[in-house]
Design brief:
Elements (H helix, E strand, L loop, with lengths): L2 H4 L2 H26 L3 E4 L3 E5 H7 L6 E11 L3 E7 L1 H12 L11 H26 L3 E3 L3 E6 H12 L5 E11 L8 E9 L4 H7 L7
Antiparallel strand pairs: 1-7, 2-7, 3-4, 3-5, 3-6, 4-8, 7-8
Helix pairs in contact: 2-5, 4-5
Amino acid sequence: MSFSQRFTDIHLDVLKEVGNIGAAHAATALSKLLNKKVDMHVPAVRLVEFDEVMELAGGAEKEVVSVFLRIEGEAPGSMFFILSPEQGEEFVERMTGMKTDVFNPDDEMAVSALQELGNILSGSYLTALSDFTHLDLHPSVPSLTLDMVGAILSFGLIELSQVSDQAIVIDTSLTDTEHSDAEAIKGHFFLFPDPNSYDPLFKALGVQSHD
């Protein structure tokens, strides 16, 4: 049975619900951090082809802001949260009240704000996933990268290609409720479990590992 056949719509719905639980926890943490109401939700969880992974992030040569972390524990893997530079700068401005340049490595405030965003989002999502699956999952310290999409994602795709030609994409939307006319900040989580992590994940989600 192929990777995509093993993940049914029901299981994707479960992952979407897990994502929304994680987003709710992240929104609470961000609201406290920013001292204003923040809403987050997960519009969709999808399986996408590798070519689509690059396109969703803006194309292989598109410069992006990426927060990367390793998932450690019983189902290790890699997770990337990717924002366009414009979206990254919008978040930092809302967080700090200051205009920033996220591609300026000397802008310590921008780097710190985006690392904190990645830390909150990834920690909240993995906590929700761990609670649901009863697997021991925890994130490494997130690292911030400013680079082209192809360079950032190539390692994860190479690893995942051993077992699949698709990846799990978790859409994320963040809204500042004090500015209802402001555009939502949208990013993508790209989840790449290690090859030996699929069986425990499938088992925890109730998916048969073999034909």
